[in-house]
Amino acid sequence: MTDNKKVIVDGLWDNNAALVQLLGLCPLLAVTGTLINGLGLGIATTFVLVGSNLTVSIIRNHIPKEIRIPIFVMLIASFVTNIQLLMNAFTYELYLILGIFIPLIVTNCTIIGRAEAFASRNRPVPAFIDGVFQGIGFTAVLMILGALREFIGQGTILDGAHLLLGEWARDLTIHFYLTDQKFLFAILPPGAFIGLGLLVATKNIIDKRAKNRQAVEIEPGLQQT
Questions:
Q1: CB neighbours (10 Å) of residue 135?
Q2: Rounded to whole angstroms, what are the CA distances from 159 to 33, 71, 94, 114, 175?
Q3: 157 sits in which H/E element
Q4: Closest CA to 86 of 129, 43, 56
Q5: pTM of the full predicted structure?
Q6: 174-187 pLDDT, tens per residue?
Q7: 161-177: per-residue pLDDT in tens?
């Protein structure tokens, strides 16, 4: 497996920030009441992750080791400020819903961790790829968890799509069943904890089956030799 391919697979699956490293769980559990909320926060986080990874990689040889973490935080904060201003200008209602969790991206351990563990030790291209696919992997978990909670809690998918995509997206909402009262357990944080646990368990089962299948395929070859 080439280095770039490994970086991609790690970001999407093998070392997924949410399912394996269990980082960034505060926003993951707090805002994923709907798929669109998760997608909005995921895009914002990916933007910051890519920008900070690339910048840290470019200037890595000019950063004194003693103050590298404060410098990383300042760089991350500058990208978070940019995404705040963009969301405030173009997706204001979604910005209000996500609230404090947009500025809290600064403290997201996923972003700081990738800057320290990967971007500061690699060239810009691998750092850029790592940022993109770590962000996509994190966003995918946000979207899946948001879709699961939205479906169980209120019987819809893509509710509030217009908050992110514009007025034309109001008709994208899919209604699976009608209810007079939302299932609050799914929408509130307890539902998020259970949903995340199910996603982690599902990943572990898939990985275990893949490992067992690989072992079965290798064993006949060892017996023949």
A1: 25
A2: 10, 39, 12, 32, 9
A3: strand 156-157
A4: 43
A5: 0.93
A6: 999 988 888 888 98
A7: 999 999 999 999 999 99
